[in-house]
Amino acid sequence: MPLLDRYTTPADRYDELLAANGEPRPHWARLIEHLESLGPRALQEARETMQRQIASNGVTYNVYADPRGADRPWDLDLLPQILPAEEWEEISAAIRQRATLLNAVLRDLYGKQELIAEGHIPASIIQGHPGFLRNCHGIEVPGDIHLHFYAADIARSPDGRWWVVSDRTQAPSGAGYTLENRALVGAQFPDLLRELRVQPHNDFFQSLHDALAHWAPRDDETPLIVLLTPGALNETYFEHTYLARHMGIPLVEGQDLTVRHGSVFLKTLGGLRRVHAILRRVDDTWCDPLELRPDSALGVPGLVDAARQGRVLIANALGSGLIESGALLGFLPTVCEHLYGEKLAMPSVATWWCGETAACDEVDERIDSLVIKHAYGFGAEGPVFGGDLDAKALAALRARIHEQPRNFVGQEMVRMARAPVWSAQNSGLEPRLTGLRVFAAATPNGYIVMPGGLTRVAGLQDARVVTIQRGGGSKDTWVLGAAQEELPLSPGARKVPAAVAEYDRSTLASRTGESMFWLARYAERADCGLRLLRSGLRQQLSADDSEWPVLLAAGLRCNVIAFHDKRLSPQATLLGALKDRDHPGGPLSNLHNVIRLARALRDRLAPDSWRIYNRLDRLIASWGRGTHTLSDALEFLDQALMLMITLSGYSMEQMTRDAGWRFQSISRRVERMQFLAAAFDALLVPESGTPALNTLIDLTDSVLTYRRRYQRAPEHAPVAELLLIDHDNPRAFLYQIESLADHVVLLPGPLPPDIQLPLQQLATRLLARPAEDWISTPRHAAELRALLRETWHAGNTIASQLQNRYFNHLTTRSTMS
């Protein structure tokens, strides 16, 4: 087999692909046969297609201090990890048992603490654990479920047995990436996916959602479930947005929530809405600055008290990170036999907690063959391999352990299994270390396990640990269907309850509404600025400087050009404005703000629109590199405007007409109204010089409309008619005012007082005389300039009123409902 020519694996490790005789294991045989039939070129093309899709979808994992920046592309291998159905059943049963056990341990440790009293768990492990939240002791959680969502990192030893390496009980990550891996890899092998009857896992998340709704304290209300994220800077933010969108629940940050009278509320555009369940991705101590960590800006003040009063379900329960301690691993077998009378189906890797004298002596004796870890997961350094240390370093490590023995554990080093990855460099397969993260969710009928999970792959062939945070990658995990099963490729249709709760259109977080408002505002600012610069550069391309003085005045007045150096040529001034990243009003600055807000709104953006934002982001990055000619600048402007138009069209044609869409429409109208007011002031009725009619028509994208309607060269009166008072021209000044007034009245709840009156008055005054009269005499032109400037200020007033009413909640009282 040519693909396996360079595939070798050490004899002291289990190989997922090859059996002891060097032949592919039976459950891998069909995949290898399929890969051979495709050939290296097709496989490399498939890998490149998948990588483009990852970039297009914006699948990221933000590794701290990574030179590739905050948006490191997700690393996914083309080949899946394959597990037969029989083996998966054993893994699944063991994970269900372990999740049930850990939930019981949490219930006891935050309750009666009988396991401590009876000596099954040393008191010093718990009482000295930084993750034991004393504030949460005695809190009764809904359904006695502390552990709603659980993950176990498991690895295979050389004899083929699976071992638990660590437990993830606080805010497990990776499940969203598992879904995306299936979509990406499955798209490359769709027929094989069907032929092998790979078990789907979409139903897992619906079951998790249904379970949270089941246990949520609802008081006969329709439960509102939210996903709490630390924010867009978190390394797994992509996953947070992905899961929120997949589960159909709001993605919120701590500032979006407030606690009133023991209940948690979401700050929405329609007021306060009670939250019944929180699926959190914020670590324990950061969740409440009042009772836990006072310097936290990620949590919700009063959240612990809301949990204490039983008014909200928190998944996982606060304090569940306690179980992640490696110090507990050695005591779980005894606890399992004590509680259930059975052995752990999947044991943990041999672990010695140095807080016990006998265990510490064992670690001391075997230190050169063990991995030394911090017992509570808070160490600044990673695991220390005793075998790597010289005598002096070993002595120093021993001294540290003996100084604070309870802070350390010694763990047997597992020679993890290897699995094949596609190597573009060698055009074949090569082995890499792998581990598997398996996910379980609590339901009223017990724990369920997601078929498959997240296979993690070491980044280098000689790596000894598997961690994505240190440059590793991932695989899709295929669990094959049993021979007698006919597994569906997608979840079956669910029965819809006869009475479905009415959709609440106002349940949009105020911060989200504000972000949508500013996203569209920055987008319109960028669009207008790009058009102005393009119009000026087009004139330079035709060597026509006749309208440059007033165009420069428009650029300065619209804040597109920061300043004018008289020593610079018009072309240099325009190119400088286009490359200026620091000027707040410049197009590049506005485009960066568009991308920043799009990331914060990712859960609200459909995949198709996100791909456009992603393309825009890459275009901006490419423009920032090297020197550029006039032709380069015009090409960049055309591409950027095309993407902005596409995004605007998507908003118009695809978005539901809810409050978020309404705010985007309003902000666009406000911004365009202000831009036109400033531009017309400089270009249509300049205080000195002649009007720049060609520039004005080009700037408002009205060249074809003007030619078709008037069939003459640009003249003052018809240009003023088309661009000032045309009710049907979406680039006309009057159109912005009337459209803005129409949108404002449809906002939820009581409106700020007299918000419509200024718009109505402006429209009435604009229509008081024909367009030609506005520019017929210097006196009328001065009146029009005054009206334009008054309109510009009115835009700021309206934006401030909306900000205070809907986002800051300064003008009305929120109601709790």
Features:
817 residues; alpha+beta; Dna Ligase, domain 1; seven-stranded antiparallel β-sheet; four-stranded parallel β-sheet; 20 strands; 44% helix; disordered C terminus; CP_ATPgrasp_2; Circularly permuted type 2 ATP-grasp protein
Please, could you describe this protein's structure?
44% of the residues lie in helices and 12% in strands. By secondary structure, it is an alpha+beta fold. The radius of gyration is 31 Å and the shape is elongated. Among the domains are: 350-412, Dna Ligase, domain 1 (2-Layer Sandwich); 510-807, no CATH class. Strands 2, 3, 15, 16, 17, 18 and 19 form a seven-stranded antiparallel beta sheet that branches. A four-stranded parallel beta sheet has the order 5-4-9-10. The longest helix is centred in the first third of the chain and has 32 residues, at 26-57. The chain is built from 26 helices and 20 strands. Helix 13 packs antiparallel against helix 15, helix 13 (510-541) runs antiparallel to helix 18 (630-654) and helix 19 (659-683) runs antiparallel to helix 23 (733-744). Pfam families: Alpha-E (PF04168), CP_ATPgrasp_2 (PF14403). InterPro entries: ATP-dep_Glu-Cys_Ligase-2, CP_ATPgrasp_2, DUF403. This is Circularly permuted type 2 ATP-grasp protein.
